[in-house]
Amino acid sequence: MPGEFPTVRPRRLRASARLRSIVRETRLHPASLVLPLFVVPGQGKAEEVLSMPGVRRWSVDRVSEEAGRAFDAGVRSVILFGIPESKDASGTEAWRDQGVVQQALAALRKDLPELTLITDVCLCEYTDHGHCGVLAGEDVQNDPTLALLAREAISHARAGADIVAPSDMMDGRVGAIRRGLDGAGFEATPILSYAVKYASGFYGPFRDAAESAPSFGDRRSYQMDPANGREALRELEQDLAEGADMVMVKPALPNLDVLAAVRASCHVPVAAYQVSGEYSMIKAASERGMIEEERVVDETLTSIHRAGADLILTYFAESAARRAAWA
Ligand code: PBG
Question: How high is the pLDDT of residue 324?
Fold first, then answer.
């Protein structure tokens, strides 16, 4: 029999900051935050991304500046996205050993040996049509894409990636990448699968930053329908069966229910990606004085953590880590 008011007064434990602090259920730790970094060809570059205020695209010689600031704040990992020198139909720059991500891996490994380096494995930044796989006419071909993704992952591992993260949503890619890595001697390289990736309007600003908007059509034939929750668990099971070491849900805030279900259905580390559109919404509203940025960032990250994310990929990683370190 639950107690009743006035015996029961939940407000007692909310009465002061001191009390609230000892009964808080969820706390962010800087090591739970992963900073996405965009790397561009050239030298001396720190180009602003117009649709993502405060985010820049770094050339290889400067990327350690940004990663180093995050590391100083307590962030322990980054995920790299490359914007290649040139694009073609099959995205060959993705697995070139001197490609932009491969070079950034070498630079970061040298400058920040304690930083964990994750790479996004996908073709959309490297193909001239902007789709995440190779085409036959306008059809994105599943099986011919798998070997290319495996080559890309192997190339990243060879260049020093600690973890590879396929985000393409082709069927069977975790297995293909696992076999490829194992065959090349990288059986110890973990795969963080973007297991549950919805076809989302919240990726808009990213496609500006990565110059990866599809030149025709959209990604709905490979990314998931946001209306589907059960299907997320099917994707999860499939990726685990193929050997995923960690899984991701993306975007984060619109899918907290799915994130909680994924957390409850598996025993691997779960990540969530607070994507570009989630970032830019907060930035735009706070720039106009409609919301308080820091408060909203902390609230969203805490909610994502509470819903079940062990790791959160967020463009706010550095500033949030600075606050979390003292929380
Ligand atoms: C590549 C990829 C995308 C994002 C992460 N990896 C773009 C997309 O699928 O269109 C989005 C990240 C973000 O919006 O911050 N496939």
Answer: 86
Domain that holds residue 98: 28-326
Please report whether residue 14 resides in a domain. no
Residue 5 covered by a domain: no
Alpha carbon 249 to its chain centroid, in Å, reads: 9
pLDDT tens across 119-147, in order? 999 999 999 999 999 999 999 999 999 99
Split into its structural domains, the chain has a count of 1
For the chain, the residue count is 327
**What is the greatest pairwise CA distance in the chain?**
70
Integer angstrom CA distances of residue 97 from 49, 92, 105, 126, 157? 27, 10, 11, 14, 10
Distance 197 CA to ligand 1 centre (A): 9
CATH of the domain at 229: 3.20.20.70
Using the 8-state DSSP alphabet, how is residue 201 labeled?
Answer: G
What atom in ligand 1 is closest to the CA of residue 279? Answer: 15
Q: Which atom number of ligand 1 is nearest to the Cα of residue 169?
A: 16
Measured from the CB, is residue 272 less than 6 Å from ligand 1?
A: no
In single-letter form, the type of residue at position 25 comes to E
Q: Is 238 domain-assigned?
A: yes
pLDDT in tens, 245-289: 999 999 999 999 999 999 999 999 999 999 999 999 999 999 999
